[in-house]
Write a structure and sequence with these properties.
The structure is a homotetramer. Chain A has a 6-stranded parallel beta sheet, with helices on both faces. A 5-stranded mixed beta sheet of chain A has the order 7-8-6-9-10. The two termini of chain A are 30 Å apart. By secondary structure, chain A is α/β, with parallel strands linked by helices. Helices cover 33% and strands 25% of the residues of chain A. Chain A folds into 2 domains: 140 residues, 3-Layer(aba) Sandwich (Rossmann fold); 109 residues, Dihydrodipicolinate Reductase, domain 2 (2-Layer Sandwich), CATH 3.30.360.10. The N terminus of chain A is likely disordered. Chains in contact: A-B, A-C, A-D, B-C, B-D, C-D.
């Protein structure tokens, strides 16, 4: 058996940010997964060396934007694969990480802005399909305690759609609206109308509506609770060792195209 | 058999505005209805007396706001029941008609701003249910050739909901939005957020979303084409003789409460 | 202030079955409600007298079918209003309770087979609307650990719909199906097709689909978790004192018609 | 400019089966397309040579299973590209056509069992996504005059899903149903539950529901009328010349993967 296969076959995870809301959920999910071993739960006051001491092969980073780059650098430096769910990884941060990974060609890193398989599939599908339909709009629906509208996921979905349509030379969605005194047509992001609903009882939901003559295609994703993110976390941990280098977005592992 | 029952049993209709889009549809629908007889199809250049000559017991008015009041007055004067689908019947016009009907206590008139049974039921239900849920929003979806946003039906639905909630002392739907730079939260009508989607392939659709802790109630109506209005037209013609006086809104015949 | 108003104004609740899953949820919900006081949490080994000792004005019964009738009889005997969420209250049990309530004309009892406001509204609406549409079918969707198909709520909804259509003389929904080798058309309950979906991630959901020429009306209810039942529990506790006698079904308090 | 580009650039279509329902729709759609020229409308009594006389570069075959193979052979023999919407092209017929196309390496043929872009995209997406979710079921909804249940499209979708899950080693969707006396769980096709709704007002609709812990992905397609198939017909005519050989299924042109 080659070293690579051993790496892939044995998954010993240190969870960073183990005491936050996502961290606790992830600890539970990993504990229930027969093929993944939880070897360390680290909080903000713990030393990263504890991951090495525990014999970790992987780190799962669910911390804060301020800490995540150092955590990733530490993992790569020590040959640990890393799955990162922390936000804040803009292009310049990712470039630095890619440079470091050049020195560790067998280490895999996944940065996942969204761990929901359904959400990732939905966004990818919507962008692919958007070239083939005359009209496309996005409706996102969330709990009413959310401060931002539209949601970050909806903005990214609209950007992907707008970019795909621009590349394919698809004209703007038709819209004869001349009178909309109160802004019922919603936000426009990269040429795509985006509507934000806030409703008690909901968690996080998104619909992409695509329309052509005589037909409609709807791609809807519902995340009912944080449990929605755990299958993606586990999939990331299982696949990261066999994907050396940096992968940005869980769709890189889903073989959707 | 009493006179009243005879009146109810025999329905001989003169269609006014028979050559417009709604008129032609109505002519077809009446022709296919076994219990309703089409006796005259009148256009804007025809004399109303032709309805009398043809032995009409009912008129169906699908004309224009300028002509509709005279048509209604003519019908009531000659003892014909009237079903009116023309817009423009504001409160002052309706009051004049009620005054005239006082002289003809056996004549029934229905003014129906919307002939779609589904739409009428959906709006009535939404208004009733809106007292019992913490949150309520409206999403309307139409073809992209529509000039106004939101739709008139959505505005009326929001007004009914807002009024029902105000009367019941229900507070505003919760909304923590602090950052909405592009207006994704849509229009606000009587305290109710209303979103307007425009999509090729659609005709006229509306969803009322009601949310409370852990649950959601959705009342959705889809009108796929003008055929959606014909069952309401026929129901109006069948019921108007047994509802003397003025009824405003098809829901008055639907026994929804 | 009259005695009646005082009764209505002060709500001191003893929860029976306080340690079960629904009981714990209800204890939390009551604790958070400013206008309702939790005075006792009783389990199966506790004496009912403890409710009296604690000064309860109301009992909330979330026990088991074997215990619920005695609990209700005890409450009525001692002048306590009762809200009952336990199943098993068939017609004969309810008759006995009505007889006892004849001796206590000021006591109110609510037996609620379903505490979800959305579900209760949805079923009531569907039954009312079903007279006006040519076609109606029911789709219920639940988590895949459920043993029965279709759900009890779906069966009751179909029965209500079937009964309403029979009373109104509406013919059966049209169906030209001649070839259905694997039973894709689902169950038929009182003439209404009922389909059961089982899907991981779901909790309890139901759609009533009503169709006529050119239009569709959809009434959908989603219960995302047990929290969905708490607004109905609280509404029952707040309203029961002003509804003396037995009320069967939360819709009796909702003023839907 | 190369010959190939000239071929691609000029689209002169002979419609075979021009007087059927699909044929008349296609004639209208082609007439409105600025970049496609309609040069012949042929019915069952017309000679195929008329297509050559009219200078056709393409044929669109919307005839019957008995006639379609000869039409295709004629087109290939004379160097015409062919878009075929007729059913009945089983594997053995397709093999014969592929053999003939070996002699005409520049001719393109598209056989499209379904011209709806939305339906094709929806099925392809559902099959790709089905590997990543614990549960998947299909609900199809059609007008009540349909004789078969489930629809052919739903059967094909379920087969694609079942095959994708089998290849990926995904276990069967979980289902604890023990009591289903009336068959509410519907048909099972290749391990996938399929439910068929029949409702007046609908045309042809399909939902694929995918569920995992805490989340749901829904891919829904609505075909409101035959107009839904025209964008796919036009896309096929525009693309067939640049896809020499036989393509089976419009998804081959959609670059979905």
């Amino acid at each position: 058996m080659s070293d690579t296969q051993q790496d892939s076959g044995s998954i010993r995870v240190a969870v960073l940010g183990a005491h936050g809301r996502m961290g606790r959920r992830a600890v539970d999910a990993i504990s229930e997964a027969a093929d993944i071993e939880l070897v360390a739960r680290l909080g903000s006051s713990d030393r990263l060396d504890a991951a090495l001491d525990a014999g970790a092969t992987h780190v799962l980073d669910l911390t804060v934007p301020e800490a995540s780059p150092q955590n990733a650098a530490f993992a790569v430096e020590h040959g640990l694969h890393a799955v990162i769910g922390t936000s804040g990884w803009d292009a310049s941060r990712r470039e630095q990480l890619v440079a470091q990974l050049g020195q560790s060609p067998r280490v895999g890193v996944l940065i996942a802005p969204n761990f929901s398989l359904g959400s990732v599939v939905a966004s990818a599908v919507a962008a692919k399909a958007a070239r083939w339909f005359e009209s496309v709009e996005v409706v996102e629906l969330h709990h009413p305690d959310k401060a931002d509208a539209p949601s970050g996921t909806a903005v990214r979905t609209a950007e992907l759609i707008g970019q795909a349509r621009a590349e394919a030379g698809v004209p703007a969605s038709p819209d004869a609206t001349r009178h909309d005194p109160h802004g019922a047509r919603g936000a426009v992001v990269d040429g795509v109308h985006v509507h934000a609903v806030r409703l008690r009882g909901l968690h996080a939901h998104q619909e992409v509506l695509l329309g052509g003559p005589g037909e409609q295609l709807t791609v809807r994703h519902d995340a009912f609770d944080r449990g929605a993110y755990m299958p993606g976390v586990l999939l990331g941990l299982r696949a990261v060792a066999s994907h050396p280098g940096l992968t940005y977005g869980l769709d890189g592992y889903l073989d959707l195209d």
